[in-house]
Amino acid sequence: MSISPLNGAEMAVLHSRLDGVVRRMSNTLLRTGRSGVLNRARDFSCCLLTADCRLLSAADSLPIHVLSGPDMMARSMLEFHPDLKPGDAFLHNSPYHGCSHPADLSVLVPVMDGEGRHRFTVLAKAHQADIGNSQPTTYMADARDVYHEGALIFPAVQVQRDGRDIDDIIRMCEMRIRVPRQWKGDYLSTIGAARIGERALTQLAADIGWDRIGAFAEQWFDYSEARMADAIAALPAGIVTGQSTHDAFPGFPTDGLTIRSTVTVDPAAGRVAVDLTDNPDCLPCGMNLSEACARTAAMIGVFNSIDHRVPKNAGAFRRIDVSLREGCIAGIPTHPFSCSAATTNIADRVANSVQTGMAALADGVGMAEVGSVIAPSAGVISGIDPRTGGPFVNQVFLALSGGAASPVSDAWWTVGHVGNAGLCCIDGIELAELTQPILVHSRGFVPDSEGAGTTVGSPSTIVEFGPVGAGIDIGYLSDGHRNPAAGVRGGGGGGAADQYLVAADGSRRALDACAQIHVAADERIVATSCGGGGYGPPAARDPGRVADSVRSGLVTPARARDVYRVVVTPDGYVAQAETRALREETA
Q: Residues with Cβ < 8 Å from 418, sequence gap 6 or more?
C-alpha cells in the first residue's frame, strides 16, 4: 500500500508522539527503579529502533548509551533469535555484541503487529548498582580480563516468553548480585519500561497504522540527514588531529595514555570522518572501550562541535564515518579484554580529542575539554547498613561538574561527563543519607577552578562525606589529577581532581586516583571533581560577568585581575577605568 508523503505539521506531530513514547518509558524507570542510580541519579536511557535496527528516537537519553550500540544490540537480537514472537523480551549487556558496558543491563522488546510481523524494537537501558563483579563496583578499572571482572554478561539472552519471565535467568542473577531484592526491583522497572513503550507504540499504530509510522521514519531520517549535511557545510574544510591524555591507571603506561583522533571535515560533501585507529592496543585492565562506546564517543565530539539543533538519529549518522581498529583500546575489543569502565574515562578522552581537535579548525567551532570522572563523590559505595543489618550497594552522585565552554556559551556546570551531557541528576543530600548509611558534611564549588576563557568552563566540586555507624567501601576511578580538562583557542584549563582521607584525629592521607578503599566509621573522605575547560582568551570575557563571579565567591579578585584582566572594586563591581587600562596594557 502506497503512503503519501507526510506534510510538515504531520511530521512535527509524529516526531513529538514518538518522543513521547520514549519519555513514557523513561518516566517508568525514574519512578519505579529501586536503586538510587536509577531513581535519583537517572542513569538510564530508552530508545526506539526500526525493525532493521536504525535508531529513530532517544528522547532525553544519555548520548553514550544510545548514539551507537542499540543498533548493534538489536542486530544481535535478530541474529540469535530470528523467529521473534509477541511477548518476547531479551536481556543484553554484552560489550562484545553492541552494549556500552556490562553495568548497562538492557531489555529489548520486539514490537509486533497483529499478524506477527516485527515492526520496531524498544530498548530500555539501566545502569546497575551491581552486576556481579568480583569487587562491589560497576567500574572495575583494574580487571585483568572479563573473568577477573566477573560481571554477568547476557548477549541478547531471552528473559521473557509470552510476556512471562524465564525464571531460570532471574534466579541466576539473584544468586550473583549482592543485593538481589534491589536488582530484582530494577529489573522489573526496566522490563516495565520496555513493555510501556511496546504498548504505547502499538496504540499509536492503532490510531494511524504501522505503515504511516514507517513512512514517518523514512522521511525523518532523510530530513535529519539533510540537517546534518547543512551543519557540516557551515564548517571550514580541513584535517585536524586532536589528542587527550588520561592519567596513569592500573594497566596503563606510567606517564598516562594519550588518545588521538584524526578528524576530516568535508563541507562540500557534507561529511565528517573520525579515525581512531592510531591508538594503543587493548590493555589488561577494565578501561577498554566497547565498539559502541568508541563509535558513540567520536560522534559525541562531532555533535558537540556543530549546530545543536541537528536531530540525533540514524539519518544524521549517515554523515559521520568512524574508523575503528579491532583489538584497540579505543576501537573494537576482543574477548576476553574487559570493558568494565567503557562508558566513561577513555570514552571521555575520545570525545574530548574530537571536539578540541575540531576547535583548531576555526574560532566558533568545537568545544573545550569536559572534565574527567569518576571522583569518589560519584563512586560506588557498599557495605553492611547498621540500621538494617543488610547489605547495600549503589553508585552515588553526590557531586560532579566538568562542563566545558563552547564558542557561544558558558558551560553547563553539572554536565557530569561528556558522555551523559548533563542528563544524570545530582543526589539530594537528604535522600542520599536516608537510603545509605552516610553523612554528607559539606558540598560546594571550588573557587578559582573554572576553565577561564571568553566563555568559561565549570568549576570543580568538593564534597566531604563519611559513613555512619559502620565502615563503607568506595570504588572510584578518578581521572584528571595530572591531566585536567584543557581549554581551547586561548582558554584555560579546569580544576584538577583530588581526594584524601580524613582520620578521626583530623590528619589527612592522600588516596590513589583509582582504588577500591575502605572508609572506617570514624573517617571521612574528601573528593574534588574536575572542572571544565574554557574557550577563547579570558581577557576577552565581558568584565561584568567576571565581576558577577567575584561577587558570588567563585572567582577571587586576584584571579579576576591576573587572568581576566578585570579590576573589581571592594564591593564587587567593575572598576571601569582601571580595567580598560589593564586590558589595553596587555593587548
A: 297, 300, 301, 304, 347, 348, 351, 352, 355, 370, 402, 404
Q: Do 531 and 401 form a contact (C-beta atoms < 8 A)?
A: yes
Q: What is the pLDDT of residues 431-465, one digit of tens each?
A: 999 999 999 999 999 999 999 999 999 999 999 99
Angle at 451 between CA 448 and CA 452, to 5 degrees: 80
Q: What is the pLDDT of residue 123?
A: 99
Core vs surface per residue 99-112: b (16+ CB within 10 A) or e: bbbbbbbbbbbbbb
Contact 128, 136 (CB under 8 A): no
> Mind giving me the DSSP string for 498-526?
EEEEE-TTS-EEE--SEEEEEE-TT-EEE
Check the CA dihedral 316-419-142-72 and report its sign: negative
Dihedral Cα 409, 415, 421, 426, nearest 10 deg: -140
Q: Distance between CA atoms of 20 and 37, rounded to whole angstroms?
A: 23
DSSP string, 138-167: S--TT-SSHHHH-----SSEEEEETTEE-H
Q: Name 462's bridge partners.
A: 444, 528
pLDDT tens-digit profile of 21-66? 999 999 999 999 999 999 999 999 999 999 999 999 999 999 999 9
Give Cα 79 to chain centroid, integer Å.
28
Return all residues near 364 (Cβ < 8 A) that are at least 6 apart: 407, 408
Three-class SS state of 357: helix
pLDDT at residue 1 is higher than 70:
no
Average pLDDT of span 62-86:
98
Residue 21's nearest CA partner among 223, 200, 145, 267 is: 200
Say how far apart CA 125 and CA 191 lie, in whole Å. Answer: 10
Secondary structure letter of residue 197 according to DSSP: H
Q: What pTM value is reported for the model?
A: 0.98
Find out whether 33 and 417 touch, Cβ atoms under 8 Å: no
Q: Sheet holding 380-384: strands in order across?
A: 391-395, 380-384, 472-477, 514-519
pLDDT score of 373 more than 90: yes
Is pLDDT above 80 for 2? no
Cα–Cα dist 531/483, whole Å: 11
Nine-digit cell at 422?
A: 548533563
* SS3 (DSSP) at 484: coil
Contact 533, 452 (CB under 8 A): no
- Residue 64: asked if its preceding bond is cis (omega within 30°), the reply is no
Predicted confidence (pLDDT) per residue in 139-159, tens digit: 999 999 999 999 999 999 999
State the amino acid at position 507 in one-letter form: S
3-state helix, strand, coil in the chain (%, to 5): 30, 20, 50
Q: Are 64 and 347 in contact (CB under 8 A)?
A: yes
> Using CA atoms, how far apart are residues 583 and 586, in angstroms rounded to an integer?
5
